[in-house]
Amino acid sequence: MILKKFLMKGKKYIFLSLLVFLAGCAVNPVTGKRELMLMSESDEIRLGSQADKEIIATFGLYEDKKIAEYIDHIGQQMARISHRPQLKFYFRVLDSPVINAFALPGGYVYITRGILAYLNSEAELAGVVGHEIGHITARHSAKAYTRAQLAQLGFGLGSIFSPAFRQFSDIAQFGVGMLFLKFSRDQESQADELGVEYSTRVGYDATQMSKFFGTLKRLQQLSGQNLPSWFSTHPEPEDREATTYRLAKEWRKKLPPTTFRVAREPYLKLIDGIVFGEDPRQGFVEHGFFYHPGLDFQFPVPENWQVNNTPQEIQIVNKKQDAAILFTVSKEPSARKAADKFLTNTSGRLIRSNFTRVHGMPAEIRISDVTQEQGTLRVLSYFIEKNQKVFVFHGFCNRNKFDKYFNTFKHTMSNFDRLRNKKAKAVKP
Asked: How far apart are CA 203 and CA 196, in angstroms?
């Protein structure tokens, strides 16, 4: 009887596997071949739309309308002649110094201001944007998702046939999820080919795309380090430099004779004055204080604590990583409502509450316990009203260490103030 149930379970998973293979085949828009694909176009659009909000919240958009419109114009030209012209494309410029460009399923392409500073012409830019469009048209994210789902299906089968394997299933599935973040080298090469094709077909000199890979190679040599992790699955820059140059020459022969655009001067004029590196107006640490000229505030940072500043929040962590301060801005209209919302969202238990003023600004102070799987955290929170915004601090650690870190938390939070440092006020990129 036990053997019968065992075999029936196995048959069920095999049957489900067959259903997956039968139902999941789709024609790839680029190759024209039927492929196993477990993500529909509507799934891609929904996933991309959700992730787009998170990307913007994490990095922030670079506030330069001319640059945004310029890149959108170039991208839309190529999107219209791509293998998925019916798909709506979105082109974003992120306020990040990192040299990067990437794509999300559903038509979302991102270019950082960091990479713009290292491109030397409109043709180079078109090649990079075309490469990212290629990832979308060839449905590379959908393929990665399919690989992940099939691997999880495999883990399900393994869990039936091997009880010893079952305990590792969840961990293994977490590793499989990481596949979704990376494309294979073959996919990167295909995206290079499509970038050359799309940029050439709209009139750009795609041989210029190879120059960017030359720039990457020189940056790698100057730094004496490997390329950023974004390039870890990409072919070597020198290989891509030669390959894209050859492909560009081949594509020129397929099209009627014409003068292909480089547009170096217009591009350099456009990016003249672009912020290079970190933008101090978005916050910086100096002499033990965090200053934010853009939002007009300052507060002291605990000595030897690490600061990670993002558009969404500021994370301050000690060396032992057993205590942290989180600073953010609430969407609630008042300190009291923000404090109540935090308690509701975390299902926290209120220990103490009082109203005060921090440098004349109304503030709600709360101490609460928040229970997690790893144990109970005790949290000191300050909710401070300033210029119709509510600025929020959370200092947290394990409950049994709270007394040790209480004064450190309090010193940072109670010394939140308007930006007093004149030098910090006048800082420029």
From this structure: 11
Residue pLDDT, tens place only, 212-246: 888 877 777 665 544 443 344 455 656 788 889 99
Calpha distance 132→106 (Å, rounded): 12
Q: Which helix (H) or strand (E) holds 23?
A: helix 2-23
DSSP 296: T
Q: What's the whole-model pTM score?
A: 0.65
* 197 Cβ contact list (under 8 Å, min separation 6): 130, 247, 251
- The token pair at 55 is 């990307």
Tokens in use for 157?
């089968």
List beta partners, residue 112. Answer: 94
Asked whether the beta carbons of 138 and 30 are under 8 A apart, the reply is yes
Class of residue 196 by CB neighbours under 10 A (exposed 0-12, middle 13-18, buried 19+): buried
Express each pLDDT in 20-68 by its tens digit. Answer: 444 456 777 777 677 766 677 888 888 889 889 888 888 889 989 999 9
Residue type, 346: T
Is the domain defined by 285-425 classed in CATH 3.40.50.300? Answer: no
Structural contact between residues 311 and 318, judged by C-beta atoms closer than 8 angstroms: no
The CATH 3.40.1000.10 portion of the chain extends over 285-425
Which residues, other chains included, contact 246 with Cβ-Cβ below 8 Å and sequence gap of 6+?
A: none
- Residue 110 burial (C-beta neighbours within 10 Å; 0-12, 13-18, 19+): buried
Residue 372 to residues 240, 340, 348, Cα–Cα distance (Å): 48, 19, 10
Single-letter amino acid code for the residue at 134: G
